[in-house]
Amino acid sequence: MAVARLIDGGALRERLVGLLPIGRNGPATTRLAWTAEDAAAAEWFSAQADSAGLAVGRDPGGNLWAVPAAPPPWWALGSHLDTVREGGAFDGALGVAAGFEIAARSAVPVAVISFADEEGARFNTPTFGSRALTGVLDHSVLDRRDASGVLLRDALGGAGVDAERIAGAPEWLGRLRGFLELHIDQTTDLARAGRPAGVVRGLATRMRVRAELAGRADHAGTTPVAERRDALAAAARLIVAALDLAGEGAPAAAAARAPAAAPTGAPAPGSPRELVATASRILVEPNALTTVPSRASVWLDARSPDADAVEGWRAGVERAASDLARGTRVEIALTTESHSPGCEFDPALRARLLELSRELGEPAPELDCLAGHDAGMLAASMPAAMVFVRNESGVSHSPEEAVDLDDAAFGAELLLRLVEQVAG
Predict the structure, then answer these.
(1) Where does 17-151 have alpha helices with state H?
(2) CB 94 within 8 A of CB 183
(3) Which of 31, 188, 275, 359 fits as disulfide partner to 304, beta carbons 3.0 to 4.6 Å?
């Protein structure tokens, strides 16, 4: 006998209709933190809160809260509203919209949170808001500048957030009993498993490293190769070394976890992946056609469920940089710009979600995730859980994200039923 559900895809579509055009340019969406688009999304948030009977506030870290009239602490749901540049429509936004639909349907009072600057796309400050809330934000990031030279602390001020008060954000943490997040799957794991939603077992350790390479500008035609101090050529070698090191570290990382169960004939969702390294950004000076590059900045990203593998990769990159500096006479300095420890989500919450999925007729697999999420930051402080929604394309941070809102409604239904159990 089918179990009646309270949330359907149409309800989520109705909530999203006012948000999706904000920052939209053709098929892509750009809503960077602390911008006019971000402010417009905050207005959508306030309207959604009104419709769900919730009061809006903003904590000192810039996070938006929609809270019930009942006294705290509350269980909360949500995600984020900012995007990467030229991103997709659902990453983050789906979790906030679902949070409001769950709050409106729930028999128990719950809050909805939109975390500030989760993507970190403008100032390289990933999970800024949830780091501020949990007291682990490195306040030196306030002196970072964006591509236009704007100082982060000034951007915050323009958005109504006092940088000097961010240290007070953790005082709001006590208002929460736990946190739940709905998010699109950023792989094809659920699509291959043929399931609308999955329960996230945990998040991987993640690290971002910036390499600054300083050589010497010279004529591209008349300077002998042996006399060059070519920053870009050294950067290319460093990138290859970093990617090769990730490949070498893969077996240990892969052995660290067992694959989740999958239907017969389907690849196991959440099955072990290698330690993943990416050269995600590069800047070159003077960037002229006839000049040997004098400077290069490279950003390297590494992720693995095995924290030791990430640390080993970082040490290997340091050795490679030292060897390259000696061989090329290019100065190389490495800086770790962010380091996020992995986490395991609350086992009791995961078990309840798995049981609820079976009761609703769509047994959910458990998944591991190599991306970062706000729920992962809160997991160290309180019970937390995540549900992923099937993404047929497996593509994320791109207009090619693909989510069936009926699948999203199933995931939201799981969280609705869970929060009524744990908060009732």
Answers:
(1) 36-51, 93-105, 128-134
(2) yes
(3) 275
